[in-house]
């Protein structure tokens, strides 16, 4: 695994209606960063947070639109382009995607 592992979190400042009481998208993003760097200190990660209502990268707009259209609960976590969790992502699922 010499390449960086891309971990993306698509979310918004406003907590999704069905996710009230759970961490915000930003809190989830920060929690994932800390957990993954602690568990895999020898791996190189590229962490990206994408605000679904303020997408700065046109390549991410299509997926952000899918999230805005309620195809996914946010925050949505992707590892190397594959959805591994949404709403309240499970750390074990993220670990499994990295260890493949």
Helix/strand order, N-terminal first: EHEHEEH
SS-derived structural category: alpha+beta
The whole-angstrom Rg is 13 Å
Distance between the termini: 10 Å
Q: What value does the average pLDDT take? A: 91
Number of strands: 4
Strand order across the biggest sheet?
2-1-3-4
Shape: globular
Strand content: 15-25%
Biggest sheet record: 4 strands, mixed
Oligomer: single chain
Question: Can you describe this structure?
Answer:
This is Disulfide oxidoreductase. InterPro entries: DUF1462, Thioredoxin-like_sf, YuzD-like_sp. This protein is an alpha+beta fold. The chain is built from three helices and four strands. The protein has a four-stranded mixed sheet with strand order 2-1-3-4, sandwiched between helices. The N and C termini lie close together (about 10 Å).
Gist?
The protein has 100 residues and is an alpha+beta fold.
What would the keywords be for this entry?
35% helix; alpha+beta; globular; 3 helices; four-stranded mixed sheet; single chain; Disulfide oxidoreductase; Thioredoxin-like_sf
Question: Topology, pairings included?
Answer:
Blueprint lengths: L4 E7 L13 H15 L5 E7 L6 H11 L7 E4 L2 E5 L4 H9 L1
Parallel strand pairs: 1-2
Antiparallel strand pairs: 1-3, 3-4
Organism: Gottfriedia luciferensis
Protein name: Disulfide oxidoreductase
């Amino acid at each position: 695994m010499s390449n960086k592992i891309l971990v993306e979190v698509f979310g918004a400042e406003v907590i999704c209606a069905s996710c009230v009481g759970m961490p915000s998208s930003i809190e989830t993003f920060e929690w994932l960063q800390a957990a993954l760097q602690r568990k895999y200190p020898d791996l190189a990660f590229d962490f990206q947070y994408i605000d679904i209502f303020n997408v700065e990268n046109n390549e991410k707009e299509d997926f952000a639109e899918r999230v805005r259209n309620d195809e996914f609960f946010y925050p949505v976590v992707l590892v190397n382009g594959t959805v591994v969790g949404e709403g309240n992502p499970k750390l074990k699922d993220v670990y499994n995607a990295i260890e493949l």
